[in-house]
Design brief:
This protein is of the alpha/beta class. It contains nine helices and eight strands. The relative contact order is 0.16.
């Protein structure tokens, strides 16, 4: 059985992470049902996913397409929702559109058009989040905040995509105050969009180290990998 760095089993680690989420929600006066735990299963075997599934986990995040496709193909459960959370290359859009329920890392019009074009007709629209480069890092993907509205308008025109919200990965190593500024800026951007488009309500932000701050600022999805599955494997 796989274990986290503290030698917890996967079910124990999920329970502990969910407890952290619940406590963060309570501390900020939020309903615990408002925050979804996304278990980041990248590089981990399907057996680990199944162990988490058997403990009630249904949402799994994958960064690496081929690794994810191998799991999806052999997964016996149709009620899992697969989230693509890695960088998207044009030549991967067909497979992503055909195999995933969610995409968190949409950051340009070309990729949006390809995802919509390749989404199979028998599937519902692909749920997408726009990734915002909230810390303005040169080496990080994501649209700049000042370009967000333009991309939103472009995505809303595409018939096979459903724009559900925003996603960010703030710069690492920042102070808690700086981190909160980034999270609050994301929440403000989401709220402004939601005022016009009621279905744009998701905010994917927060991982193991900054989960509490993200939830305090309004996150609706937290992405947790190592704390559940242990250190990542090398592909």
């Amino acid at each position: 059985m796989s274990s986290s760095p503290t030698q917890q089993t996967i079910p124990q680690a999920i329970a502990h992470t969910q407890q952290r989420i619940n406590e963060a929600c309570q501390a900020s006066g939020r309903n615990t049902k408002e925050v979804l735990l996304l278990a980041v299963s990248k590089t981990k075997p399907l057996s680990d996913v199944m162990e988490a599934y058997n403990h009630g986990q249904r949402h799994f995040g994958e960064n690496y397409l081929q690794d994810a496709l191998d799991k999806i193909e052999h997964c016996p459960h149709g009620d899992i929702e697969w989230h693509f959370i890695g960088a998207i290359q044009s030549n991967k859009t067909k497979s992503i559109a055909a195999n995933f329920d969610w995409v968190h890392t949409l950051d340009r019009d070309k990729i949006a058009r390809l995802l919509s074009q390749h989404r199979p007709a028998h599937l519902p629209p692909l749920k997408v989040l726009i990734q915002v480069n909230i810390s303005q890092e040169a080496n990080k993907n994501g649209v700049a905040l000042e370009q967000l509205n333009k991309l939103v308008e472009q995505v809303l025109q595409l018939p096979n995509l459903s724009l559900c919200g925003l996603m960010c990965i703030p710069a690492a190593g920042q102070s808690e105050a700086t981190q909160s500024q980034a999270f609050n800026a994301m929440a403000t951007a989401r709220d402004q969009l939601k005022a016009t488009y009621a279905h744009i309500e998701q905010l994917s932000m927060g991982m193991s180290g900054d989960l509490n701050g993200a939830i305090a600022c309004g996150s609706t999805m937290v992405r947790v990998g190592t704390d559940i599955f242990g250190a990542r494997n090398t592909l």
